[in-house]
Write a structure and sequence with these properties.
Elements lengths: L4 H14 L10 H10 L3 H10 L5 H4 L2 H31 L5 E2 L1 H8 L13 E4 L5 H10 L3 E4 L9 E3 L2 H7 L9 E2 L7 E4 L20 E6 L2 E6 L1 H14 L11 H10 L4 H9 L6 H13 L11 H15 L1 H22 L3 H10 L5
Parallel strand pairs: 2-6
Antiparallel strand pairs: 1-2, 3-4, 3-5, 7-8
Helix pairs in contact: 1-2, 1-3, 3-5, 9-10, 9-11, 10-12, 12-13, 13-14
Length: about 350
């Protein structure tokens, strides 16, 4: 049994990409499952192990638990899919055809995909500035309410139907406060842009809505971003935007999304995405790292020297908690500086939250 966190992280990634691995019998089952939980890929791991010919004994004893997780994920995704279609229908009745983003795009745009592979968390939609108020009003009429915590130090957020206040709270962000409605399991995020302001200069132009594809499903209509746009969102929105890149970390959940996205028209998708970036080299490193960590079956990883350097950072992060903490502090500082640089009006709110008395 190998208890090296970096070794187990690598095996987990390869298992998610390939569906098998010759060194699987050497993993530390507890550590592997902990990593899968952290990266939100437990359900995907369950599916890959079901496909594996010879599951080692230390993992076989967790089969029932993993199968239950996969079943729960499928059930939850079915509920979220039904909820999303009802939301789209309400917007259609208001003469709005929304653009669905992130996991929602895969959930609705590929209804025949394996529902257990991705653990869906919420519903993401983009509305233009012209249709924003009308679209939000349509959802408020359906019983949704904004879930807001305007002062952040309050112990309990509040629910409100105040659209003006919600738009005001979201004016420095790329989405409004989440909309929730009991008993639905997913919150709804209405985006005004598909990237935070600090990341928008990385694009030569914003073509997410322009190059989208109209889909019809169960008498509803919605737009799904093109494959290059989805790739850019995984790269900029998740890998860069969620600070994985600055923390020298890698989201296996995002990597699995990218592997599935690039299964069709790989070269064309990558080329078209790179053309929209001001600095396409970083995208190439991200794709190479994805291919190395989650090599698809029948392929062999071909990391370049930049990818090998990132792997060295990753190994240091997973093997040494002290380095991981330093990377996190650095990433948080960079995130704050970039956010305040591109949206300086966030500074008063940030200072208020830091100076607020602790909640008793």
């Amino acid at each position: 049994m190998n208890s090296d966190p970096w070794f187990n992280f690598q095996i987990l990634g390869q298992l998610l990409g390939r569906g098998n691995h010759p060194l699987l019998d050497q993993v530390n089952a507890g550590l592997l499952l902990t990593l899968a939980q952290k990266h939100r890929v437990l359900s995907a791991l369950a599916i890959r192990l079901e496909e594996h010919a010879n599951v080692p004994e230390q993992l076989a004893e967790h089969t029932t638990e993993l199968r239950r997780r996969r079943q729960d994920t499928v059930q939850k995704n079915l509920l979220i899919s039904s909820q999303a279609l009802k939301i789209v229908a309400a917007l259609n009745r208001a003469n709005i055809t929304p653009l669905v983003l992130k996991g929602t795009a895969r959930l609705l745009g590929e209804p025949d995909a394996n529902l257990g592979l991705r653990e869906q968390a919420d519903i993401d939609l983009w509305l233009s500035r012209e249709t924003l108020a009308q679209g939000c009003t349509a959802l408020l009429d359906q019983g949704y309410r904004f879930w807001v915590n305007p002062h952040r130090h309050r112990a309990q957020p509040i629910l409100t139907d105040d659209l003006v206040e919600a738009i005001k709270l979201g004016r420095h962000h790329h989405h409004l406060p989440p909309l929730v409605k009991a008993p639905y399991v997913a919150s709804v995020e209405i985006h005004t842009h598909w990237l935070p302001a600090r990341l928008q200069p990385a694009l030569t132009c914003d073509r997410m809505s322009e190059y989208s594809q109209l889909h019809t499903l169960r008498n509803t209509q919605f737009n799904v971003p093109s494959a290059p746009s989805q790739l850019l969102q995984h790269f900029l929105g998740s890998h860069v935007g969620d600070t994985y890149a600055d923390r020298h970390d890698f989201s296996l959940r995002t990597g699995l999304d990218v592997i599935q996205l690039l299964a069709k028209n790989r070269d064309e998708t990558i080329e078209n995405a790179a053309q929209q970036l001001t600095h396409p080299t970083a995208l190439a490193v991200f794709i190479s790292l994805t291919n190395t960590l989650l090599t698809a079956e029948g392929e062999e990883p071909r990391p370049d020297h930049l990818t090998l350097k990132e792997q060295q950072y990753l190994a240091r992060r997973y093997r040494h908690p002290g380095w991981a903490k330093l990377y996190d502090i650095r990433a948080h500082s960079l995130h704050l500086l970039k956010s305040l640089r591109h949206t300086p009006r966030k500074l008063p709110g940030y200072l208020r939250r830091k100076m607020a008395p602790p909640q008793l």
